[in-house]
Amino acid sequence: MDLIKTIEEQQKKANVSDFKVGDTVKVHFEIIEGKTKRIQIFEGLVICFKNEGIRKTFTVRKISYGVGVERVFPVNSPRVIKVEIVRPGKVRRSKIYYVRDKIGKDAKIKELLTPKAKARVANANAVANQASQAEAALKAEIKAETAAEAAANKNKKK
User: Fold this and answer.
1) Using the 8-state DSSP alphabet, how is residue 89 labeled?
2) Are 19 and 85 in contact (CB under 8 A)?
3) Distance from the Cα of residue 20 to its chain's centroid
4) What average pLDDT does the chain have?
5) Nearest in space to 48 (alpha carbons), one of 114, 100, 118, 12
6) How far is CA 31 from the centre of its chain?
7) What is the pLDDT of residue 158?
8) What distance in Å separates the CA atoms of residue 111 and residue 24, rounded to the nearest whole number?
9) pLDDT digits (tens, 9 = 90+) for 60-82
10) Helix (H, G, I), strand (E, B) or coil at 28
11) Helix, strand or coil, per DSSP, at residue 68
């Protein structure tokens, strides 16, 4: 068992944002389609956390064109570039599945406006900014790869 735990500890991300259930977040994650990579943003309400350790996941829910869409993200996934807190929420439950049945304004979660919450959001967004620097490096890497492929294709044609 110790071997498994040590491997899991190596796989954990160092800079994980401190967000909670009820927060509205923007999840920046990497999508690979064939040879192209891009970063997509999924903005919504965190409705639950599941598991622990390396297997920890969180579910984000948003309303898209009148239809509720939920997506589960692994916290320690290398594809999740950063999680940015847009608005802290005030909830008293660890899983807010009841939001699925709410429609319109009933589905809103109250905003948490205490100084402690503002400090938590500022700290989490600072961590996210560090992750955005990694995101910028990834974009530069993608751009360099496409430029190298274009140059290779150009040389093949000659």
Assistant:
1) B
2) yes
3) 12
4) 86
5) 100
6) 12
7) 62
8) 9
9) 999 999 899 999 999 988 899 88
10) strand
11) strand
Q: Cα angle vertex 136, ends 130, 137, to 5°?
A: 95
Structure tokens at 68: 């509720």
- Which two three-digit tokens encode residue 20? 């909670």
Q: What is the 3-state secondary structure (H, E, C) of the chain?
A: CHHHHHHHHHHCCCCCCCCCCCCEEEEEEEEEECCEEEEEEEEEEEEEEECCHHHCEEEEEEEECCEEEEEEEECCCCCEEEEEEEECECCCCCCCHHHHHCCHHHHCCCECCCHHHHHHHHHHHHHHHHHHHHHHHHHHHHHHHHHHHHHHHHHHHC
R_g (Cα) of the chain, nearest Å = 19
Sign of CA dihedral 26, 29, 33, 36: positive
pTM score, two decimals? 0.76
Q: Flag whether pLDDT at 93 surpasses 80.
A: yes
